Amino acid sequence: MSARRIAIIATAVVGIAALVGAVAYFMPIFKVQNFSIRGQHNTSAEDIQSATHISIGANLMRIDAPSAAHSVAQLPWVDKATVTREFPNTVDVEVQERTAALYVKRDDGEHLIDEKGKPFIIDAPPEGTVEITETNEDDQKLFADAISVLKSLDDTSRAAVARIKAPSQYEFSLITHDDREIYWGAPENNHDKAVATKTVLQREGAYWNVSAPGLVTTR
Q1: Hey, what domains does the chain have and what are their CATH numbers?
Q2: Are 132 and 102 in contact (CB under 8 A)?
Q3: Which of 118, 125, 121, 120 is nearest to 103 (CA)?
Q4: Which of 144, 142, 148 is nearest to 190 (CA)?
Q5: Do residues 182 and 176 touch, judged by C-beta distance below 8 A?
Q6: What's the rounded Cα separation, in Å, for the pair 150 and 210?
Q7: Cβ count within 10 A of residue 211
Q8: Strand partners, 94
Q9: pLDDT tens digit string along 60-78?
Q10: Could you read off the pLDDT of 143-178 as tens digits, one per residue?
Q11: Which residue from 13, 146, 162, 176 puts its CA 20 to 30 A from 91's CA?
C-alpha cells in the first residue's frame, strides 16, 4: 500500500472519529442513567448525587465533571471528590471524607473538627472522638496543635484520653476517662512527652506534669 493511500485512509479515520465525537457531544447518544458513588461513610449517596447537579437523562458527553466534583467537595463531610464518565451511561463519583479528630461544645451544638484543625459540621461526634475544652474561639492553629499532641500518643495512650484542655496555645492538658490529668504544656517535644505519658498512665496518681519530660512530677 502506497504512502499516499495510507495517508488518505488515516485522514478519513480521523475525520470519521471527529464526526462521531461531534455527534455524541451535540446529540444525547450517551445518556446518564446511573451513578456509581464510592468512599462515603457519613454522607448519603443521595446528597452526593444531588450535589453533582447532573440529571438522569443528561448527555454524558456534556457533563462538567470538574464543576460537579467541586460541588460535591462543598458537602460538609467531603474533603475531596472526583467525578468521571463511565461509558455508556454512568457517572462515577469517588469521595474522600474528613476524619473528625476533635469536637468542641458550643451553644448551638457539638462542632466537629477535622485533622487539619478546621471545624466543618455540627453533628454528633463519632465514637472515640476527643473533646477539646476551655477554648471559646475557633482557633484553627490551636486545634491543629491539639491534634498533633494526640497523634504523638500510641494507640493505648490515645484511647485513654477523653478530652484535652486548651486554655491557651501553650497550655494543653490530657484528661483521661477516669478523670486523671496529665499536664502537657506547649505542643513541643511531643514525642518525648508521649513516652512520658505512656509511663505515667501505668502508675497511680490523679495529676502528672510531663511538660518537662526528663523531669516528670506529680502531686
Answers
A1: 28-97 (3.10.20.310), 100-218 (3.40.50.11690)
A2: yes
A3: 125
A4: 148
A5: yes
A6: 14
A7: 21
A8: 38, 82
A9: 999 999 999 999 999 999 9
A10: 999 999 999 999 999 999 999 999 999 999 999 999
A11: 13
